[in-house]
Each structure stands twice: as structure tokens, then as C-alpha cells.
Amino acid sequence: MESSQSGAQASAGIGLDDRSETVLMRAGWLLGACGLIAGAALAALLGLNGLWVATAAAVILAAGAWLGGAGKLSSPSEPAQSDAGHGPIAAPELLRAVLEQLPDPLMLLDDADRVMLANSAMRAMVGTDVEDKTVSMVLRTPAVLQAIDQTALTGDPSFAEFVFRVPVERHYQAYVARTPQSPHLTAVVFHDLTAVKRAEQARADFIANASHELRTPLAAVTGFIETLRGHARDDEAARPKFLEIMSLEAQRMRRLIDDLLSLTRIEQNEHVPPSGTVDLEFVIRDAAAALAPLAQLENVTIDIEAPPDLPAVTGARDELIQVFQNLIHNALKYGKSGGHIVIALAETAEASGRRGGAMIAASVRDEGEGIPREAIPRLTERFYRVDVKRSRERGGTGLGLAIVKHIINRHKGRLTIDSVPGEGSTFTVLLPARSPALPPSVMEVL
Amino acid sequence: MRAPQVPEMSDHTVKAFTEKLEALSSSVAQMGGLAEAQLADANEAIARRDTGLAERVIAGDPRIDELQQDVEDQALKLLALRQPMAVDLRETLAAIKIASELERIGDLAKNIGKRALVLNREPPLRLTQSLARMGKAALSQLKLVLDAYSDRDAAAAESVWRNDDEIDEIYNSLFRELLTYMMEDPRTIGLCAHLLFIAKNIERSGDHATNIAEVVYHMTTGGHLATERPKADVTSSTTVSFERKD
After folding, report:
1. Closest alpha carbon within chain A to B133
2. How far apart are CA A59 and CA A66, in angstroms?
3. β-bridge pairing A106-109 and A340-352
4. Touching check for A134 and chain B: CB below 8 Å?
């Protein structure tokens, strides 16, 4: 990647040093374009943002210097005319067209800091027409103006990072570079860092949340240890009660850690599609069997309705068992005591993604009090709980549905949630049916 | 775009004049960018309890004052040497007026920064979230009005002028909430007084944004927005009755 960067700058060098040599210029420009494409490809492959920005800036400077030297660069108000002396490439239009399509915002300034050229991403970033205005009328962010001033003063490229706080927070990095000889042209290229910053923020939030969740049971356990060491040392009656609470809290911590670990594992594998063949009905029967003791305790019956000859799905058996265990567990926790849970399997006509195979739907329906409408979109967020106190009482970790979502994502399936307050909720998992097995009817025709 | 105002002026003179006027506008925009950044950073310093940022805000204020001086000098030179007329004259005067509003916003941001230093020494308060929301509303107004200035957009300026209500609404509810807080627990009075002033400063910077909106509207159209703006700030007559608990 080192070499690619210097290559792009070298091409810029050709473009800048010998402006009188039209042939060299054109070579520089073409090389620059190659560098640009290579840079874009590299950046896409490796996520090297800084390199991409630097490459793009070098290229537009090279191109701009050539055009500026040839006196061809024009503002939109006076469209460029390609005259006969400059060969077959109608460069200004071509340059403009190429830059216009680049995903990163960029602009080229003349030596009076007026915008000579800007692409569509640039216009979208500032939300207004840009060309032929002075730069501070376009973008008044102090960090960027300072970087432009500094580059003008020293001639060296400079970087600036800045934030638009309103209306939606957006983070950008700007790279400023300038041609060494008069007339000075300055290229300003921007790179959107919003996604990176958001991911950083999400990670920080997650760690903060997880620590907070662990601290609550830990505080309870330490509290009871203190009590048992202190004034309850000889209290025979209190001891088993306290130990029971401590054991429950310790179990809660273990569940939370287990969930955190499985979430991490699933996330690591999320981009690797599963390869096994799984019969969903068996998976669901296994999951239900594991929870049978709990169901008995809650006096809830679990009914499984599965049509015969349901196609298998492609999936990882253990993960799918976890999906249905979590869903059935939720139905037991939040359903009515003495009620029913119905798990229905069906083949749906709905196409799965682009390949268009059938989907198998497995829905888990409870007769609980339902979920408020506004809470439904947030259910799969980590540590989101509709009712914090109740979830804690029932030993929830706040991660169950997040795990379900990630497993289903890995299986290229979907999760839909329907709920009528007062009547119950239905969680439906849609998974793509195993594709090569043609339906029997087709086999007969063949 | 800018037709020569006096027929006998040569092209060269007109060009030089246009350039001077544009330089004046970009100085105002640059100053606007600084004021925006100062206000945004002051809000961040409160929301994230960032003392370093608060100190940078305080240290950054003289730069805005310098720029205001610069804008005034440029405008005076234009007035004295070129005698601009019609829209050019309005633009020159607008630059002076907007610069002085921006300078005030800079001062308010600096004051918020100073209070952030005090707040950050105390335990965090839930109310700072409302302040952050209010700060965001004020920042949004300032951004929109500065965009309207850069784009010479009278309609955008008018909509800023009409939309000051949101800030006032948050200010009203925050004001009531703070009064109740102080009554319930007199130990919080010191802290709440700072919060009250911060809220007031944010509310004032929103008002300065609407003042700028009036100037931009006048600059572009030559007309005036009606003098009585719908005001939603009722705190000057808000009281919370003190209930004695037995």
C-alpha cells in the first residue's frame, strides 16, 4: 500500500512539474486516474481511509493543475468548450464527470480560496450549490478553514477532523493539499467517519452496560457476605435464606456471562453462512423438551403444530436450538400462568432474498399481556427491557432476543414480532428452506 | 450578478468592489463558523462533563472578538471609500450587525464554558440532558440562519425567525423543574443557579439567531419581518408556589 500511495503522488508530480508538456500532462492525468481507481479499490478492500483520501487529493490536484495550466477549467456558468488543439480527450468534461461520481465529497479551490469545482457528494454534504463561492460561504467549520490556511502558509498537506452536530451528528475528516507553484490550487477531500465513530460509541456503551448489569448482582452478593460475617454470624434462621439469595444472584451473573460469551461467538461468525441441514421440527421439540420442567412449574402447556414433509433448513443445529429455547423461555416468562404456548411450523410462499427459495416459518405464540407497540422495534437491542423490574425478577439478562437476532441474521432469516396488548405476542422466525431439494410435485413432473 | 451601481465606474473598479464585498461576507461566515463551534463545544463540555473542552471554549473567545473587529474595519472602509448603495449598502450594514450578534453568542458560549468548569466539579445531574437538548435546538437555529446568510435565502431566514418556540418551550419546562428542585432540597441551590444561567444563556443565543434572521431577511429583500415575533418564553412571569410540608 505504501507503494500505491507514492505511485499516486508520483503521478501527481508528473502532472505538476511539467505543465507545459501536454503529453506528459495527459500521462500524468491518466496515471492519476489509474491511481485513483487503484486507491479506491484498495480503500474498499482494506478500509484505509487516510490513504484513499490522500490518493484522491493527489489525483484531483494533478488533474486540476493540468486543466488550470491549459486554462480549461471552468465554472458551470460558463461551460467548458473543448477546442481543437487538445486532442481527442475532452478533459474538463471527463474530469468533471469522473469526480462527480466519487463517493467522497471533494472540492478544488483557486488561489483566492474560491471553489472552482466540486462533486455531487460535496453538494450533498453542505446541502447547497458550491461552485464559484468563497470557501467559507460553503463550509465555515473553523477546523477546515484553519487547515486550508495552514496549507497555504506552509505548502504542506494538512488534516482536520470535525463534526456537524445538527441536524444529525456527522463526523468527517478533511485532507487539504496544494500545488507547489503558481497559480496555486488547493484540493480539499472529505471522508465520512460517522459509521466508525458510531461503532466506537456503540462498543463503549456496550461495555458500560455490561459492567453495570454485572455490578448489580455482585453488589447483592458482597452485601450478603458482609452481613453473614457481621451481625448475622450466628443467626441460624437467616443463613439459609441469605445463601439462597446469594446463589440466585450468582446464577444470574453466570447467565449474563454465558449470554455475553455466546453473543460474542455468534457475532464473530455472523458473516460465515451455516452449512448443516437441520429439521426444524426436531430442533423445536428438543428446545421444548429442555424447558419442560419450567413449563410444568408455570403450569403452561406447549403445543407443537408441524405439517408432515416440511423441507429442512440450512443451519447450525445448536444455534437454532438456542433461538427457540430463548423464544420459548420468553413465552414462559411473560405468558400467563396456566396458559398455552403454541409453536406452529409452516412453509411460506415468501421468497428468501435474491435466490428466491421458499422460507420456513416457525412462530411461537403466547397468551401473555402482550408488548406495547412502541417497544417492539427496540426488543432486539442489547439490554433493552420493556419492564426492567419484572425482567430482573424473572432472571432475564436483557440479551436473549439480541442473541436470537444475530443467529437469525447469520442464517439469512428474519424475525417478525406481532403483539396485541392483552391477548399475547407472536414471535415468528423465517428461515430459508434448504434449496437443492425440489418439491415432490416438481419431481413428479420431471 | 452584482450590477454596477454607478454607471461611470469602470469594470475594474466594479470587480474590485465586488471582491471587497465578498471578502466581507466570507469574514462574517467565518466568524459564524467560530461562533457555531464555540456554542457546540460549550454544550458538549456540559453534556460530557469535559473540563478540557470547557477551557478551550473560554480560550477561544478572543478570536471571535478579533474577527468582529476585522469585519467592522472592512465594512467601515467599504462605506467610506466606496459608498455602496441599495443591496450592497444593506449587505455592508448586515455584516456589521451580524458580527455584533455573533460576538454576543461567543460571549454566551464562553460563559457556559466557565459554568461548565463549576458543574464538572459536582456530581452529575440528570437535568444536564435537558440542557443538551436545548443547546442542540439553539445550535440548529444558528446553523440554519448562517446557512440562510451564506445562501442569501430570505425564506430560510424567515423560518428560523418563526421557529424560536422550541427553545423557549424547553427553557420554560427546565425553569419550572429547576425551581422545584431548589425548593425540595436547598443544598442544590448553588448548582441549580448555575444551570439556570446556562439555560438562560442558551435561550439568549437562540434569540440572537432570530435577530440574525431579521437582518438576513432585510439584507436580501429590503423589507422587514413584523416586529412582534411570537414569543413562547413565559419564565419572566413563572412562579412555583412554596408548599410548606408539616
Report:
1. A166
2. 11
3. unpaired
4. yes
| Proportion of chain A in helix, strand, coil states, percent, rounded to 5 | 50, 20, 30
Contact B25 A141 (CB under 8 A): no
Instruction: Indicate which of B150, B152, B160, B166 best probes the interface with A, i.e. most A CBs within 10 Å of its own CB.
Output: B150
Report the range of poorest mean pLDDT among A67-76, A271-280, A381-390, B218-227. Answer: A67-76
Mean predicted lDDT score pLDDT of chain A: 78
Residue A324 to chain B, least CA–CA distance (Å) = 39
pLDDT at A97 (0 to 100): 86
The answer to whether residue A292 neighbours chain B at the CB level (below 8 Å) is: no
C-alpha cell at B123: 456530581
- Please tell me the distance from the alpha carbon of residue A18 to that of residue B98, in angstroms, as a whole number: 46
Tens digit of pLDDT for each residue in A284-311?
999 999 999 989 988 899 999 999 888 8
Inter-chain CB proximity B150 and A137 less than 8 Å: yes
- Where residue A161 falls (left for φ over 0; alpha for ψ -120 to 50; beta otherwise) is beta
Omega before residue A167 within 30° of 0, cis = yes
Lowest mean pLDDT among A102-106, A249-253, B122-126: B122-126
10 Å CB burial of residue A74 (0-12, 13-18, 19+) is middle
Interchain contact, A165 vs B40, CB within 8 Å: yes
CA nearest to B1 within chain A: A77
Whether A192 and A171 have beta carbons less than 8 Å apart is answered as yes
More confident call, A80 vs A377: A377
Q: Cα B227 to chain center, whole Å?
A: 19
pTM score:
0.64
Joined grid coordinates for residue A385: 427491557
pLDDT of A12 strictly over 60:
no
Of A117, A21, A113, A129, residue with least CA distance to A73: A117
Q: Pick the residue with more confidence: A235 or B105? A: B105
Residue pLDDT, tens place only, B136-157: 999 999 999 999 999 999 999 9
Residue A67 to residue A62: CA distance in whole angstroms:
9
A4-8, A179-183, A251-255, A417-421: range with lowest mean pLDDT: A4-8
Q: Tell me which chain A residue has its CA closest to the CA of residue B33.
A: A140
Quick one: which H or E segment has residue A160?
Answer: strand A158-164
Q: In this structure, what C-alpha cell is assigned to residue A257?
A: 456471562
Distance from CA of A17 to the nearest CA of B (A): 31
Distance from CA of B216 to the nearest CA of A (A): 14
User: In this complex, do A166 and B151 lie within 8 Å of one another by their Cβ atoms?
Assistant: no
- Indicate if the pLDDT at residue A172 is higher than 90: yes
CA-closest candidate to residue B39, choices B238, B208, B223: B208
pLDDT attached to residue A353: 52
- Measure in Å the smallest separation between the Cα of B40 and chain A Cα atoms: 7
Concatenated DSSP letters for A384-423? Answer: --SSHHHHHHTT--S-HHHHHHHHHHHTT-EEEEEEETTT
User: What is the residue whose three cell numbers read 478553514?
Assistant: A145
pLDDT at B44 over 70: yes
Is ipTM > 0.90 here? Answer: no
- Rounded Cα–Cα distance for residues A174 and B108 (Å): 29
Identify the helix (H) or strand (E) that includes residue A162.
strand A158-164
In this structure, are residues B38 and B58 in contact, taking their beta carbons and an 8 Å threshold? no
Q: Evaluate if residue A1 carries a pLDDT over 50.
A: no
A366 with A334: CB under 8 angstroms?
yes
Q: Is the peptide bond before A88 cis (omega within 30 degrees of 0)?
A: no
Residue A48: the pLDDT is 43
